[in-house]
Amino acid sequence: MTISPSKPIRIMLVDDHTMVRRGLATFLKVFSDMQLVGEAENGEAAIELCAEVLPDVILMDMVMPVMDGAATTRAIRQKFPHVQIIALTSFKEGKIIKSALEAGAIGYLLKDVTADDLAWAIRAAHAGRTTLSPEVAQSLVEIANQPPAPGLDLTEREREVLSLMIEGLNNTQIAGRLTVSPSTIKSHVSNILSKLGVTSRTEAVSLALRNGIVPPVVM
Which CATH code, of 3.40.50.2300, 1.10.287.70, 1.20.140.10, 3.40.50.720, is assigned to 9-145? Predict the structure, then answer.
């Protein structure tokens, strides 16, 4: 399916590498339905330039000095919700992908994308349609299939008890600290071990510290 806008799509480039911007600018000249209206080398400059040139679509790098791509995307989308942003980057880590999409990017492509695929993505973004590189889509599937981080279902009281366990306190000492009965603490500890999927206090403490379930004790 071909998406043909009635007038050229106004495009802005945001990338801290001059050669990347030059390459993209050359690429855009090939397509009569696309017009380059501005370039910026970092996020702050991009926000200012966006207000001046009012592009339809922005090709946004994700890792830049001054202000990264996700923060820039969020700021632009808040101020100019009609502007569509495609993340165009070399990074395919799940955390970066997720931050870009949560910030409001409509697409996420890797810089090895073909010219035809990039052109299609720009037209799709202008029409309000999402485009993701196959590798990016795979990363999102893997993120969705990951088991939840341990400790998310601990109650506030159980986190308190776990913090005191990390300090090395036994049940009686924890009970004294929290002014409850030792039997109540024993019940909390049992729930903590069950929720964390471990069988001992030592395992619980180790897992909590590895996963940042509670802040480490500062000695």
Answer: 3.40.50.2300
**DSSP letters along the chain, please?**
-----SSPEEEEEE-S-HHHHHHHHHHHHT-TTEEEEEEESSHHHHHHHHHHH--SEEEE-SS-SSS-HHHHHHHHHHH-TT-EEEEEES---HHHHHHHHHHT-SEEEETT--HHHHHHHHHHHHTT--EE-HHHHHHHHHHHHSPPPTTTT--HHHHHHHHHHHTT--HHHHHHHHTS-HHHHHHHHHHHHHHHT-SSHHHHHHHHHHHTSSPPPP-
Q: Does domain 156-211 match CATH 1.20.1740.10?
A: no
Question: Residues 113-172: pLDDT tens digits?
Answer: 999 999 999 999 999 999 999 888 888 877 766 666 667 788 989 999 999 999 889 999
pTM: 0.67
